[in-house]
Structure formats: structure tokens, C-alpha cells
Design a protein that fits this description.
Layout (H helix, E strand, L loop, with lengths): L1 E4 L2 E5 L2 H5 L2 H6 L2 E6 L5 H7 L4 E8 L2 H7 L8 E5 L13 E6 L9 H12 L3 E6 L2 H28 L2
Parallel strand pairs: 3-4, 3-6, 4-5, 6-7
Antiparallel strand pairs: 1-2
The structure holds S-adenosylmethionine.
């Protein structure tokens, strides 16, 4: 199953997507906060665990909420329509686990956006993770290596120029 925007897949339940949720699944317990609803896979994974007491999902799109939320209804689930970047968590609220998944693609540029919520929730949760963070870091490393290679190629050319 996939949801597309402008012909691009922005969420799916492909095995690669689900694989990335393995650590989240193992960690999910108590009170869980999820930034980004998508197809509701992360929410369903959390709700499948009887040790999970509440799941709060912050979702920016009313259309996505309308499409997905009715299919994952559960008395422990609360879906809030808000921008995860600006949503103000209730004073004093802590979570056992926070999962951030608001990105359409895997890209090194996501890393700076991931850093912000990780700082914001660092003291307000026991564990947090972001979708495909390791892959974004790998993409960033590859990008820097390519730039360095290009730069050293350029300098070699310049140094051999008579
Ligand atoms: C890739 S999907 C998430 C997939 C989800 N983990 C799942 O289990 O199906 C990204 C979701 O984040 C939402 N989103 C994007 N930017 C957001 C923001 N700033 N705040 C809240 N939700 C956002 C999108 O509307 C989309 O539903």
C-alpha cells in the first residue's frame, strides 16, 4: 500500500519502511509520542503492544488524518492536527518513547531538522528515534566524500597546470 503526492511515493508499507521501525517496536512502552501519521504503521505497531498506555500522534494534514485515523481507532490513541515543529507539548508531560517521521525522503538535509526535535524532547522522553536517521547520516558522509574527492581532483589539476 502506498500514498503518493504528485506521482511521488511519500509513504508506504514496504518491508524497508517496516524494517526501520524495528527498534521503535522494541522500545515502545507506556506513553508514546509519534510525529507524523502517514499510513499509521508506527501508531499501529505501538498499539499492538499491551504495555503501551497512550499513543499521541501529531499530524499536519487533515486529509491524511481523515483517510487514516478511522482505520486505526483505539481508546489509547489521540491524533492531534498540528505542525510537529511548533506543537507545544502539555507542561510537564513526559513520554517513554518518541518517534519522529515527518520526512518524505531519505536525505542528508533531514539531519538538521531531526536535530531540533531530538533536542526538544531529549529531556522529555526515555528514548527517541527518527525515521531512517542512519541512512541520512550515510548519505551525508557519501556527499562529503564526493565533494572532497572533487576538490582534491581540482587541486591536483591546478597543481599540475604549467
Ligand atoms: C512518511 S509519513 C510517516 C509514515 C508513518 N511513520 C507510518 O507509520 O505510516 C510522514 C507524515 O508526516 C506528516 N508531516 C509532514 N510534516 C509534518 C509536520 N511538520 N508536522 C506533523 N506532521 C507532518 C505527513 O503529512 C505524513 O503523514
Amino acid at each position: 500500500m502506498r500514498l503518493t503526492r504528485g506521482g511521488n511515493t511519500i509513504m508506504s508499507n514496504m518491508p524497508s519502511e517496516i524494517r526501520d521501525l524495528v527498534e521503535f517496536r522494541l522500545r515502545a512502552t507506556g506513553d508514546v509520542l509519534i510525529n507524523g501519521l502517514g499510513l499509521g504503521i508506527a501508531a499501529q505497531i505501538a498499539l499492538a503492544n499491551a504495555d503501551v498506555s497512550t499513543v499521541t500522534v501529531i499530524a499536519i494534514s487533515g486529509d491524511v488524518i481523515g483517510l487514516v485515523a478511522p482505520h486505526i481507532a483505539d481508546h489509547r490513541l489521540r491524533v492531534i492536527q498540528a505542525d510537529a515543529h511548533n506543537w507545544r507539548a502539555p507542561e510537564g508531560m513526559r513520554w517513554d518513547v518518541v518517534w519522529h517521521d515527518i520526512w518524505d525522503d531519505i536525505c542528508a538535509d533531514n539531519l538538521s531538522e531531526m536535530a531540533k526535535p531530538h533536542r526538544r524532547y531529549g529531556r522529555r522522553c526515555d528514548w527517541q528515534g527518527s525515521w531512517c536517521r542512519a541512512e541520512c547520516e550515510r548519505a551525508g558522509r557519501l556527499w562529503r566524500q564526493s565533494i572532497q574527492r572533487l576538490a582534491s581532483g581540482d587541486s591536483r589539476r591546478h597543481s599540475t597546470t604549467p
